[in-house]
Each structure stands twice: as C-alpha cells, then as structure tokens.
Amino acid sequence: MTEKLSNSLWELQKMEGKNPVHTGSFLNAFDQREFTADEVAAREGGQNALDAGRNVMGITELHFHKLKVAGENKVKLLELFQFDDLLRARLPIFEKDTRNQRFAGKVKEFLDGKALTALLIRDFKTCGLGGQWDRYEKDDHFARLV
After folding, report:
1. 62 with 132: CB under 8 angstroms?
2. What's the Cα-to-Cα distance from 131 to each of 41, 42, 112, 126, rounded to whole Å?
3. How far, in Å, are 9, 40, 89, 134, 146 from residue 18 at the CA level?
4. What residues does 118 pair with on adjacent strands?
5. In which band, very low, low, confident or very high, does the pLDDT at 115 lie, cut at 50, 70 and 90?
6. What is the percent of the chain where pLDDT is above 90?
7. What is the pTM of this model?
C-alpha cells in the first residue's frame, strides 16, 4: 500500500517484516532507561559499522558529530522537507494508541520545540550501505541499519 501526499516530497509505504533482528533486541536485552537516544544510536551505529568493516582492509573508523538547528533555520528545515505536512495530521492517530504516546510526544517536540539536534555518525573503511530500501536480505547493509 502506497500513500502519496499531495504536493509532497513524501511517499509513504506500509512495510511489514522487513528486518527480523533490530534495535528492539538491544533494548530488550539492556535496561534502556540507562541509555540516552544518542547512546543507543551510537551503540547500534558502531556495531553496524564494525560488522560492515569486517571484510575491509584497515581499521574501521567512526566519527561522531552533534548537529543543532534552531530558530529561523529550524523553520526553514521543517518547511524544506515538508515535515509539518507529513507528521502533524498523523498526531491524533499516534495519540490514540497508548503504545505510541511517547512517540507522539517526540513528534510534537520535533515540530514545535525550539531546536532540533541530531547525532551524525560517519564510518570509514567499511563496505558501505548497499542494498534495497524496501526489503531485507542477509547481506543488505542498508536494511540492517534502518
């Protein structure tokens, strides 16, 4: 099922059963209350980079960069990617299910908060993120990341 938003950059597709092993396994194995979102992303990104560097010459390198955008630049970024159109109409649907309450709060914070921060993780001496975005294969590094 594909949903194309009118005059939008976004095309949403329902995808099921893409990756049988994912970050949920990490969160189930560890008490995630002890990890920030950035720490979880760093741990998972680092593990994926090490896996992707296994058959590449040299030592895998990771570079971490914390990014922040606020004020007028945040407004421009949200407009450029049409995030408000994409997400705001879905908030009531997210809020209906108690399992999605935290997610709905994060979406509101993303749209209405003063600043956005992101953790950019770059890896070097790895095999890259080749693969298909819409299915999972054992050697599909992109699907394993997302």
Report:
1. no
2. 20, 22, 35, 14
3. 23, 21, 26, 8, 10
4. 67
5. very high
6. 34
7. 0.64
